[in-house]
Amino acid sequence: MKIKKRLWFNTVISLGTVSLILLSLAWSFREIFIADRHMGLAKEMRKVAFERILLRDEYLLYLEERAKTQWYSKTEALLGLFALADIHFAQEADKVLLKDARKYFDATVSGMSSVMEGYSKRDPEANQYPGFSDVEMRLISQVFLKAYSLTDNIDRLHESAQITATKAPDRGAFIVVIFILGGITAIIINSAVIRRTLAKRINVLEKGVELIGAGNLDHRIAAEGDDELTALALASNEMAAKLKQSYTSNEELEQRVIVRTAQLDAANKELEAFSYTVSHDLRAPLRHLIGFVELLNKRAPASPDEKTRHYLTVISDSATQMSLLIDDLLSFSRVRRVEMLKARVSIDKMVKEAMNILQTETGGRDIEWEIKPLPEVDGDSAMLRLVVVNLLSNAVKFTRTKTKAVIEVGCNKDDDAEHIFSVRDNGVGFDMRYNNKLFNLFQRLHCTEEFEGTGVGLANVRRIIQRHGGRTWAEGVLNEGATFFFSLPKQKEAI
Amino acid sequence: MIELKRILLVEDSPNDVELTLEALAEHNLANDVAVVKDGEEAMDYLYCRRQYAERIIGNPAVILIDMKLPKVNGLEVLKRIRSDEALKLIPVVILTSSQEESDRVESYRLGVNAYVVKPIDFHKFVDAVKVLGIFWAVINEPPSGSIKKEL
Q1: How far is CA B17 from CA A376, A380, B20, B126, B129, in A?
Q2: What ipTM was reported for this prediction?
Q3: N or C end of chain A: smaller count of CB under 10 Å?
Q4: What pLDDT is attached to residue B2?
Q5: How many pairs of residues across A and B have Cβ atoms under 8 Å apart?
Q6: At what angle are helices A381-398 and A347-357 packed, to 10 degrees?
Q7: Helix/strand/coil for A305
């Protein structure tokens, strides 16, 4: 049966025992009370009987009316007490005593009444010797005897009541002790049964759960019986089965990941081979193109035909444009392929270096550089250098139309989570309508004649910043300038 | 008296050969250039065998090798040269279109003397070839055994 029920049993047994004890105590008290009452009654009867005897003797001695009347009233009283005694004395032995006492009483009553009536019938004038006749004497001695017996019986009733009164507490205590012992025994037995049932099964359960916890998900705990431990065992088994299921599906997932990674690795390798081919094989014909055009140019007469010159120039420029495109494409693919090497990078230093590199293009031009304090960040230094060079070279390129170029590089300090860098220029700007196209691959907002370029630079920037977990965006006003923003997440303090 | 030493050019593309010779010619360095069109021929030349059995004995002052060659590629030729006792001291310059870092690193690892990427711009190409030619064929002193011609 369920353990809870068994434990309940202990409670029930305890409560039951206590109730029984209380009941038996109550019963004992009742018995004592009754016995007391019996004793009282018997004492009362004895008193009255005794007074009656005194009055009888008084009458027999002095033959007064007063004694006679009083004797009769005491007799009435005793009769009344007998009636009460009949009601109260319930035990067989007592009832027998009472019956006999009543017999004796009746005998005394009839005897004395006869004597008294006989005497009162005597002629007072006859002046007989005031004594009793032989018959009367015999009656009187009968009465004496019966009166003794009566008193005796009353005494015995009293005694019996007394015995009960003394015995009742003892018996009560005895019963209480029996109940206590009984209760304790029952509890001990019940507890022992519980312990025995549980000890072994808890052991099995404990070992089973340990085994499962250690990794053996095939182990099943034997589930006997029909109580809470059984339920626990079954639940543990189910848990082990479910765990095994999820492990297997986990393993399957891991397997799929391995396969997928291998596929990706293969695809990556193909891409690398592709880029390598581009790097080599497309360049060679390009060089030939350009080279032979130049040779052609050299052979052409000093003042050649305008058109011929023009055609040759176009061919040459196109080839050059193509080579730039190839270079940019190659670097763009490299950004995707190559692994990032994280390090602490000084953006400030990179900006200064980039400004140096751009010196050749900016020499002779009036450019005002405003470089605000720039923090250090964590990232791939080669890639971030590309970003800085790209954005600054764009700023330099697109401010070519202005007499005085102002290029401002800064970083927003307010944000807790990110560094937000900005490169602002006062160049040709752009129409905000094309804002979302800016960072697209090969997307340009100008033709090559206005501003050279392949449309890969900003796509590169976006790709690199994305790989670092940041965002890129821009704002611009046509002919007034543009600001390019990129964010890099702030690293938490290094562990 | 400037001595022009022999250059061995290993290049499979005739266009590239022409461009290179033109570039060398612009600076009068094209007098003594031997041209072979793949790795096999290069080894034949260096060992004076087959079609080169009759040539004047002597090592070139420098070997200019293109990376991309049919049959045996540039790195393989470099490896063979560097593994032969008689040839391993000859200066080798790899002349290539490839900017791949792996190629560059591998070349130096195999013992190349210089790694030059051919510029797309023709003028820059001519400049590069001129510098190479003047340095290796005129200024630099090769290890013994190289053929010289007086200018």
Answers
A1: 50, 41, 5, 13, 12
A2: 0.79
A3: C
A4: 58
A5: 54
A6: 50
A7: coil
Per-residue pLDDT averaged across A245-257, rounded?
89
At A19-43, the pLDDT tens digits run: 988 998 898 889 889 888 888 998 9
Q: How far is B75 from chain A (nearest CA, A)?
A: 15
For range A262-275, the mean pLDDT: 82
User: Long-range contacts of range B111-116, CB-CB < 8 Å, 24 or more positions apart?
Assistant: B111/B78, B111/B82, B112/B78, B113/B62
Identity of residue A254: E
Torsion angle in degrees (nearest 10) through CA of B78, B84, B89, B93: -10
Share of chain A above pLDDT 90, in %: 18
A231-248 as b/e, with b when 16 or more CB fall inside 10 Å?
ebbeebbeebeeeeeeee
- Residue bearing tokens 């562990």: A495
Which of these ranges, A34-48, B118-132, B134-148, has the smallest mean pLDDT? B134-148
Contact A436, A425 (CB under 8 A): no
pLDDT the model gives residue A205: 87
Q: Which helix (H) or strand (E) holds A118?
A: helix A92-121
Q: How far apart are CA A366 and CA A406, in angstroms?
A: 9
State the first-to-last Cα distance of chain A, in angstroms, to the nearest integer. Answer: 58
Q: What is the spatial distance between Cα A232 and Cα A249, in angstroms, rounded to a whole number?
A: 26
pLDDT digits (tens, 9 = 90+) for B5-23: 789 999 988 888 999 998 8
- Please count the CA atoms within 13 angstroms of the CA of A424 that sit on its side-chain side: 14
A340: which DSSP letter? P
Residues of B in contact with A284 (CB under 8 A): 13, 16, 68, 97
Given CA atoms A305, A308, A310, A312 in this order, what sign does their dihedral have? negative
Lowest mean pLDDT among A29-33, A198-202, A393-397: A198-202
Structure tokens at A98: 């009472």
pLDDT band for position B93 (50/70/90)?
A: very high
Which residues of B are less than 8 Å from A287 in CB distance? 16, 19, 97, 118-120, 122, 125
N-term to C-term CA, chain B: 7
Angle at A309 between CA A306 and CA A313, to 5 degrees: 135
Q: Looking at this protein, which amino acid is placed at residue A36?
A: D
- Distance of residue B124 Cα from the nearest chain A Cα, in angstroms: 10
Cα separation, A179 vs A174, in Å, equals: 9
CA distance linking residue A280 with residue A152, whole number of Å:
146
Task: Chain A: give the shortest CA distance to residue B3, in Å.
Answer: 28
